[in-house]
Amino acid sequence: MGEQKVKSNFEGGAERRVFMRRLLDDLRALEHIIADGMIESGVRRIGAEQEFFLIDKSWRPACAALKVLDSIDDDHFTTELGQFNLEMNLDPAELSGDCLSQLERALLQGIDKARRGAEAHGLDVVLAGILPTLRKSDLALENMTPMPRYFALNNAMSALRGGAYEFHIKGLDELLIKHDSVMVEACNASFQVHFQVGAEEFANLYNISQVVAGPTLAAAVNSPVLFGRQLWRETRIALFQQAVDTRSSMDFIRERSPRVTFGNDWIHESVLELFQEDISRFRALVTSKLDERPLEMLSRGEVPTLQALRLHNGTVYRWNRACYGFTDGKPHLRIENRVLPSGPSIVDEVANAAFWFGLISAMSHRYPDIRRMIPFQDAKMNFSAAARLGLGAQFSWFDGTTRPAANLIVDTLIPLAQEGLEKRGIDSSDIDRYLGVIEQRVSKNRTGSQWIMQSLSGMRGRVALGEQLNALTAAMVARQKVNRPVGDWEPAHADEAGGWKHNFLKVEQYMTTDLYTVHEDESLDLVACLMEWKRIRHVPVENHEHELVGLISYRSLLKLMARGGMAPGGKKQQLSAADVMTRDPFTIAQSSTTLEAIELMRRNGISCLPVVKDQRLVGIITERDFMNVAAELMAEQLKD
Fold it and tell me: 20 to 30 Å CA-CA from 32: which of 305, 316, 468, 514?
């Protein structure tokens, strides 16, 4: 999907058939390329793609990708789906010598360059699998990067779905939401690594990459929070699959594959099996101007770029994806690892890559056919368990054994990765450094996800959730700038959020979303009990469509008591919520500024504002939310 000039609206069946013919011609051409030994062999190159977020001074996502790109002025950087995302592509290097420390230096230099480009606009950058301060309102279509390929992809996927994108992820908390576009994918940022392989060895090496995906991910998890909810240890996995899922709910039993997939079986002979499977299962989403005739080019001794095949391959998101490319005019094959998250630090990312490279190298020598060692379904289940539980997963391993993730990694896989890196001639100092980072992280149970959850636990009850998420992001930025591994990070502290000025800009930053509500037919006794039990002074009232229809305040109950427990019309017990509630209360949108909220409350003499979207209640703010700010301001004034 690096091609910019694409479109999703095939002009009738004829154009779609033309594209499919080109796609099949590319596949036949690749078959000839492999059969004729044209794929580069005997060379091990590695590469990486670094995705990251742009943030403003309040630690919120900053939609400034194109402006920052202009300031960076480097072809290694490119856009991503959201205007608050960017990607950096590194030059390939041979897997030998000090290539790992070279990779770290290249990443540090690139991120430093990106940071300088961002600072020119008053912004900063952060490495995170999911940016903690992202909110659903940031995922509006107007925040999509204004380039044809992104809108084409969104239009095609939305058309196939035929309805809203639905997300349901359950971990410690539960997320159940709908969205109107593919923009939820922009919540994710990855550190994607590439491993060049020969055509003759592709099948076994690809299968090995599937086997080690689970353990590698378990040691690298860094995305446990989305929209303030604690979900999977690597929530990216579930979120990405659902964000680009073109399937809709059906009332009959038919198996259909998601476009984000681990796969359903081993590769048995050739990379061609992957492309054949994807063409068979997944409809073409986009097309472009295709002027290449691959079979004719081969007959002239030229090597085609396989435009149609690469375009289609870019819209199928295997966690380990096969890639066809070129180095110095020679065609090659790569395995692209899409499993690893961005962050927590650059040294952590290089350690994750070293662990993965080492495991594949070692296993390819030890196991000429990894299929004999473990059933495919066990490898797939291990991957799912790692995404959900991180180092808390139990893995089904070789010979039918079950191993705790941490024990398997420390006792078996780190020594195996060391063996693999040594066989490739990697400098011993680099092996010790990067595998030492993995061992420390796993032994201390201090993955990025664990650090985030520990930090939130330490701040819980002290400050509002929005301030906690700001503090997390601020702490990430500070610790990444010194490039220490997450195993050495101290937890984030609330004072790192930068005070009230950064945390009370908009209503959505501090509104309460864990609400106690009643239906308009509920007994007023229940309302009184809720206020007493939960120590709240306002109870919103909803109808059967979950629309806000009223608000009951503690003051209104006191007035009722003063009238002897009778409703305004003289109605006696049993009273319902509808009898006492204030109908059509003042409300505010979550994107509104705090100043707008304060002015609305003061102008109308109210102490509570329900926060609504499309008439549905999404949160609530009260005068109590401003008490801490008022205290800070008073303290500042008294000091002066």
Answer: 316
